[in-house]
C-alpha cells in the first residue's frame, strides 16, 4: 500500500505478458522470504518469479500472484488483490485472497468452509441461468464459443480474476466463466474459496482443476452453484445431432 496511488515504477514484461510494478516485486520478495523460511520443503510457483522445475516434484507448493489486477493497481483503482494458495498433490487445500485497498480478506481451507473477514460465505441460491449475474468478458460471450447457445445472462466484469472467484463464493454474483487459458496463480486461491463456499469449479471441459502443472495453466474456468454450472456446461457442449426423420 505504500506504492498505491504513489506513482510506482512500471515495466512491461516480455512476450506481451502485461505490466509489472515495483509493488508486485516487493510483495513477491516479502512473501517468498517469509514462506520459504517457514516451509523450506515446499515448492514455489509465482507470476513474478522464474519458474523452478523442482516444484514439480514437491508434494506441497505455494502458488502466488503478488498483485492480481496490476493494471487496476497502476490506475489507482481498488479492485486489485494478492492471491496465495497452498497446493497439495495438485489440489488447492488452502487459499487467501486479500484486497488491501478494500480491507477485505477471503480465506478458505479444505473442509473448513470459506470466509470473508471471518464471516462465512455461501454461493447464490439462484437456479435459473436466464438473467443470472455472470462475471464474464464480452468477448467470451461470442456465439461461436457456445455450441449450445450463448447463455442469456447479465454480464459483469471485475479486474482481478481471483476476486471474481471470491465474488461468486460470496453470492454477490451467480457465476464466473472464462474460456481462455488461465494462469494457475490467478486461479488457485479463489478456486478453493469458491469450492468451500459451495460452488462447482471446473475447466471449460468440465474437469476439476489440477495445479502445479508443467504448463502452469488451466483450460479456462466455469464457476457456479451446481445447478447453474450444469446449465452452463450444457451450453458449452455441442448438442447431440438428431436422427434423420423416416421417409
First-last Cα distance: 73 Å
Backbone structural class: alpha+beta
Rg from Cα: 19 Å
Helix content: 10-25%
Mean pLDDT: 95
Uncertain stretches of 5 or more adjacent residues? none
User: Looking across the biggest beta sheet, what order are the strands in?
Assistant: 3-4-5-6-7-8-9
SS element count, helices: 5
What key attributes describe this structure?
single chain, 247 residues, 5 helices, 16 strands
Task: Describe the protein's architecture and organization.
By secondary structure, the chain is an alpha+beta fold. 22% of the residues lie in helices and 28% in strands. It has five helices and 16 strands. It has helices spanning 22-38, 70-74, 161-169, 184-196, 226-236, and strands at 10-12, 19-21, 43-46, 60-68, 81-88, 91-99, 104-109, 114-116, 119-120, 133-135, 154-156, 175-178, 182-183, 199-202, 217-218, 221-225. The strands form four sheets. Strands 3-4-5-6-7-8-9 form a seven-stranded mixed β-sheet. The longest helix is centred in the first third of the chain and has 17 residues, at 22-38.
Helix-strand layout with pairing:
Blueprint: E1 10-12, E2 19-21, H1 22-38, E3 43-46, E4 60-68, H2 70-74, E5 81-88, E6 91-99, E7 104-109, E8 114-116, E9 119-120, E10 133-135, E11 154-156, H3 161-169, E12 175-178, E13 182-183, H4 184-196, E14 199-202, E15 217-218, E16 221-225, H5 226-236
Parallel strand pairs: 3-4, 10-11, 10-12
Antiparallel strand pairs: 1-2, 4-5, 5-6, 6-7, 7-8, 8-9, 12-16, 13-15, 14-16
Helix pairs in contact: 3-4
Amino acid at each position: 500500500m505504500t506504492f498505491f496511488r504513489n506513482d510506482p515504477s512500471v515495466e512491461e514484461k516480455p512476450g506481451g505478458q502485461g505490466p509489472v510494478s515495483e509493488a508486485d516485486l516487493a510483495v513477491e520478495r516479502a512473501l517468498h522470504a517469509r514462506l520459504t523460511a517457514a516451509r523450506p520443503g515446499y515448492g514455489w510457483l509465482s507470476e513474478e518469479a522464474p519458474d523452478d522445475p523442482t516444484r514439480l516434484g514437491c508434494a506441497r507448493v505455494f502458488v502466488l500472484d503478488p498483485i492480481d489486477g496490476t493494471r487496476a493497481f497502476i490506475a489507482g483503482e481498488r479492485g486489485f488483490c494478492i492471491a496465495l494458495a497452498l497446493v497439495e498433490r495438485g489440489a488447492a487445500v488452502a487459499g487467501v485472497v486479500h484486497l488491501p485497498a478494500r480491507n477485505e480478506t477471503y480465506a478458505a481451507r479444505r473442509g473448513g468452509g470459506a470466509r470473508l473477514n471471518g464471516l462465512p460465505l455461501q454461493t447464490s441460491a439462484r437456479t435459473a441461468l436466464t438473467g443470472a449475474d455472470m462475471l464474464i468478458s464480452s468477448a467470451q460471450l461470442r456465439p461461436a464459443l457456445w455450441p449450445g447457445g450463448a447463455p442469456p445472462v447479465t454480464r459483469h466484469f471485475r479486474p482481478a480474476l481471483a476476486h471474481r472467484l471470491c465474488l461468486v463464493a460470496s453470492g454477490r454474483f451467480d457465476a464466473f466463466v472464462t474460456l481462455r487459458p488461465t494462469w494457475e496463480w490467478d486461479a488457485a486461491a479463489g478456486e478453493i474459496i469458491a469450492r468451500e463456499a459451495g460452488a462447482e469449479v471446473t475447466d471449460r471441459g468440465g474437469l476439476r482443476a489440477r495445479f502445479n502443472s508443467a504448463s502452469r495453466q488451466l483450460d479456462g474456468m466455469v464457476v457456479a452453484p451446481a445447478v447453474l454450472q450444469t446449465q452452463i456446461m450444457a451450453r458449452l457442449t455441442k448438442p447431440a445431432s438428431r436422427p434423420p426423420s423416416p421417409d
